[in-house]
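Fold it.
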Amino acid sequence: MDDAVNNKKFQDKLDEILTKYQIRTVTGELVENIDEVPSCAPGTVVTDKGTKISADLIFKTAGLFVNTEAYQNGLGKYHVLFQSLQNSLSA
């Protein structure tokens, strides 16, 4: 299967799952205060377009693949959600 098709399929499935859990995603904007934001913790990010987004949990990621091992120990109560996302995406 073509990479573009795989990428679209992955993004559609991820959007479906995140919406189910009432998780909002923002694309097309760059985080400007990344060094000030804690990973796997609550915080507020500011984008290059001036958007301020407060969140209960922030994942610092880039690209298509998340380093799952890096987050598993620090997720606490969010571990169940993370496992559900991981299982659904690999199906």
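Residues 16 and 22 are 10 Å apart (CA to CA).
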